[in-house]
Each structure stands twice: as structure tokens, then as C-alpha cells.
Amino acid sequence: MKRRLAKEQEGGGTSLSPRRRAWRAAMSIQPRPCRACHPTPSPCHAAAGVSLLEVLISIFAISIGMMGVAALIPVGQLSVIEATKADRSAACGRAAMAEVKVRNMLDPVAFRNPTDGSPMGAWLDTGSTIVIDPLFSAQPDHVGQTYTQRFPYDGNWDGSKVEAVRPIPRVTLPGTNTLVMLYSVADRVFTWRDDLIFDIDAADPLKRPRQSYLWDTDATAPAPILATDKSPPSGNRVQPNVKGDYTWLLTVTPAATEIGSTNKRKFDVSVVVIFGRDLSHNPTDARPSERATAGIAGLGYGGGDGILIAPDKMKEADATEYLAVRQNEWVMVTGLVKDSRLDSPAGAGNGYRRIAKWYRAVAVDEQTEFVAKPYDRWTRRVTLAGPDWDPACVMPQAVLIRGVVGVYTKTIELDRDSKWNP
């Protein structure tokens, strides 16, 4: 067979029969590969990878996400700061209420006129609202000034109505050997002393911080003293050094159950905690640190939506500053309520008793609005949360104080019997 095939090849294959040639052709066919198992590469997919356009789109999407995360950082820091203020104001309120009880601050016999130190109990014969604020009255620049007798000092009271002429009386307390409390004592009592200052080594931030102290040599230095301190102070430590950002005052107002009652009277005592209080007297500023609106309308159950009314003949720019209230700040609302037991009360109006309640501003309009009727003045809408407000109150007004971060209120009786308790 092999010799025949070789011979046929040498002869050029001319002697092959048609059947033989078909057989040889069938034996010489090579198997074709499966396209499903071995696909033929396409020219379009010869260079597999990510294009530049896809990379740019990915970078843009990631940048948007990173910018959103970065925007949340200051918001988170602000939330932490506000939470810290709320926590410290609550602690300050509880500590101040204990201070009130220990020092017997609610004795009407001890109330003094800030100007001359005369007794001020006569203002409270009817149980109207008062403000106990020795820290403001004892300021060296305020001593002997008549504006220390009223709260707020910038009243903008409407002189056309007799009931609104008299502001809330502000009283002080006696000192150890003085008619009125001195500033050194008032600062010690009415400033929260728990916001301590700690010294951190700038060269080694991981080093344990040391508490800062005031020394009897008028120096301020941390303790304990270390051998590595370059200039340690001499003398003795006097007291811890504090920031002094939190101060407080008291408002005393008749409780809601006392209006028209013949029982022994109770009063709502509120510790008003102020962060970074401005103790200067600046009535000519566009936004004094203490100011009263010409009125407030719309309050009811649980506070509600109110309208702050600016004083008369005030321009838009001035009204915007004057009615400025930050969200979560506290606002005092004061007014006169009818009490049949009162004949001619001092400091209110015939047959009326002045009350005051504190509310937290949960929402504030950004812009002021001029309302022609019935106010004919600039106004700002606010949403207040707090106790119920009686719509029958006469001449309601809002008292705005910058920096009020917390109000701690308790209903108590007076420390001793007086004309408050007939």
C-alpha cells in the first residue's frame, strides 16, 4: 500500500481514480476550531481597559461625595457646641438653684434697690414679677445709675398706655457688710465656676493636661508644679481658674395657680443661664444686650407661633437687628393679668398683676415683615415652645437678652411670711 502511494505521488497522481481522490481529500481535511470555545479577537476589543472619560466621570462623582462629607464637619462641630452649651446650662441651673436655697435669696426683706440700697419689698406686695440680678447692678460702670432699677434697661415702653410705662423691677441683694452686693462677691456667686481651664503643653500635646490656678501673687499657672517648668510661680494657690462664660440671674413671677387664688401664694423661680453675657449698658446700639419689643401676639397653648413687634418709627434695618433672635435661644414674655384681689398694685396697673414666662425659640423667620394693620410696624415671626400663655393678658411684651442658653424653673414658696402671704 505504501509503495503504491509513493508510486502514485511520483507519478503526479494521474493514475488515481475518482473514488481514491475523494478518499484522500477526506483524510486530509483539518478540524476547524470551535468559535464558542476559541472566539476570534475583534479589532474593537484588541486594547481592553478604562478610557480617560470614564476616569474623569469617576473622579467627579467621588469629588461630589467628598464635598458633601466635608460640609458635614462644621455642622457636626456646631451640633457638638450647642449640645455642650445645653448640658452645661442644665448643670449651671441646678447648681444655681441650690445656691438660691443655701443663701436664702428669696427673702423679700433682703431685696435692695440697686441705686441706694433701700428696701425693695414694697414692689412685691402684690406678688408681681421681679428680677434678681446683682451681677449687672454691681458692675463698676453701673453703680448708682437709675437704669439698674429696671429690667430690661432698654424698655422702649409705649408711653401712651399707663400699664406699659413701668418695666419689671430689678433688685439686688445685700453684701456681708454693705447695703448692696459688691461686684467681687456678685461675680463669685452668679458666675458658674465649673468650666475649668486646663493647660496643655504645646510642645507635647499628648502630655497629661494640668489644671490652671490663680495664685496669691496675681499669677496664673498650672498645678502641680513640675521640675521641667521654666518659670514656676511662687506663693500659694488661691482658686481654680475658670472661663466664666456662664452667668445667671433670677426671675420670680406668680405661679399660674395663684392668679385669683386665696391660698398661700406660690411663685415660679427661674434661673436664667446666659452664655457670654454682655454686661455693658448700650441702649443706643441697634441691638442692645437687653431690650423689650413693643408687643407680641399669637401665643397660646404651649407657646405657639408668635409675632414680635418692633418699637414705633423704627426703620427696616434697625428692626431687623432689634428683633434678632437665634434658634434655641430663650425669650421672656411678660404681660398683665386681671386679679380681683388687687386694689391698686404698685408697678402694674389698677387690678392687674405682672407675670413673666420663658419660652424657647424653635424657629425664627429670617426676614422681617412690615404689617400695616393692625400694627403699622415691622414684625418678625417666631415659634416659641414653653408653658401655656393666657390670651387674656394685657399688653404682652417680649424681652430679648443675647445669649440665653437655658432656663431652669421651679415652683416654690417664699422663705418667710410677708405681704406676699396674707
Care to describe what's here?
There is one protein chain. By secondary structure, the protein is α+β, with helices and mostly antiparallel strands. The chain folds into two domains: 76-190 and 245-412, no CATH class; 198-240, no CATH class. It contains six helices and 18 strands. The strands form three sheets. Strands 10, 11, 12, 13, 14, 15, 16 and 17 form an eight-stranded antiparallel β-sheet that branches. A hairpin with a 4-residue loop joins β5 (210-215) and β6.
Run of helices and strands: HHHEHEEHEEEEEEEEEHEEEEEE
Fraction of residues in helix: 10-25%
Spatial gap, N to C terminus: 145 Å
Structural class: alpha+beta
Percentage of residues in strands: 25-35%
* Mean of all residue-level pLDDT scores: 80
Structural shape = extended
Report Rg. Answer: 41 Å
Low-confidence spans: 157-165, 344-349, 417-422
Describe the structure using short key phrases.
6-stranded mixed β-sheet; alpha+beta; extended; 8-stranded antiparallel β-sheet
List the helices and strands and how they pair.
Layout: H1 2-10, H2 18-27, H3 52-102, E1 130-132, H4 134-137, E2 150-151, E3 168-171, H5 183-190, E4 198-199, E5 210-215, E6 220-223, E7 237-240, E8 246-254, E9 267-275, E10 290-292, E11 295-297, E12 303-309, H6 316-322, E13 330-338, E14 352-364, E15 369-371, E16 377-385, E17 394-401, E18 404-412
Parallel strand pairs: 1-3
Antiparallel strand pairs: 1-8, 2-3, 4-5, 5-6, 5-7, 8-9, 9-18, 10-17, 11-12, 12-16, 13-14, 13-17, 14-16, 15-16
